Amino acid sequence: MTIQAAFTQLITSLAPIHDQREAANIAHIVMEHITGLSKMDRIVYKDRELTAEQSALLEKSLAALLAHQPVQYVTGSSWFYGMELQVNANVLIPRPETEELVEWIVQDVRNDRVLNRKILDIGTGSGAIPLAIKKELPAATVWAVDVSAGALETARTNARQQKLDVHFEQMDILDTTATKSLPTFDIIVSNPPYICQRERTDMQEQVVAYEPSIALFVPDDDALLFYRQIGLLAKEKLYPGGTLYFEINEAFGEETAALLRRQGYIYVEVQKDLFGKDRMVKALL
């Protein structure tokens, strides 16, 4: 089978479950993964035959995609803030909205002109947030914690591949005994679980079936569980004048802000993402 024929087979096979544009995007990603060739090179060499190994990988990848596995898990990688990161079933696939959270933090630090900040990311997953921050703010000291050993293994791999120095620790952030060992920080950031269980039925099958539930869902009767606990922790672990940043559920923007005000934060701001949805909160201690 030629490169062009393989590309056509992917689009045709994916057409029943994706619109034409999305099917083409997925096909391009998979073909680059299989061949190692850029889009332009695949046009130039469209009549080149796939090797037996490449054909087997095509078959395996297509079967996974037809089972609704996200293409990022099929290829084992995802792009975030200009970095190609390893992803797998232990970690969430980084979202573009989270890049906006990183950008907010980076710009605030640069505007303050104090670049050697000490920063903690809670629930780090693939390490996307702390690695992007360290990449943009090399003078910062960056820590990251997660409850999942598998997630931390992935994050450490990404740090090595990106040649970025981030300190990772395994920790259950809801365990107040465990968190006592954390030092004090200038900035704490978190993209914690924030999707209510009742929202599961409205979500894409590929997210529910493949991405780690522990990083997605909270009980219906305690949607702000992690915001409450991290807010309390940050009051203990932030220097005076320190800042807390969250990614949030768009349905709970004002509720999250009100919670942080009740906890004693003196300035709380909700910011929308590029889609006009409440997506981030900043709170000053």
TrEMBL record:
Belongs to the protein N5-glutamine methyltransferase family. PrmC subfamily. S-adenosyl-L-methionine binds at G123, T124, G125, S126, G127, D146, N191. One of its GO terms (molecular function) is nucleic acid binding. Its EC number is 2.1.1.297. It catalyses: L-glutaminyl-[peptide chain release factor] + S-adenosyl-L-methionine = N(5)-methyl-L-glutaminyl-[peptide chain release factor] + S-adenosyl-L-homocysteine + H(+). It is an enzyme of class 2 (transferase). Methylates the class 1 translation termination release factors RF1/PrfA and RF2/PrfB on the glutamine residue of the universally conserved GGQ motif. This is Release factor glutamine methyltransferase. InterPro entries: DNA_methylase_N6_adenine_CS (IPR002052), HemK-like (IPR004556), N5-glutamine_MTase (IPR050320), PrmC_N (IPR040758), RF_methyltr_PrmC (IPR019874), SAM-dependent_MTases_sf (IPR029063), Small_mtfrase_dom (IPR007848). CDD domains: AdoMet_MTases (cd02440). Residues 111-203 form the Methyltransferase small domain.
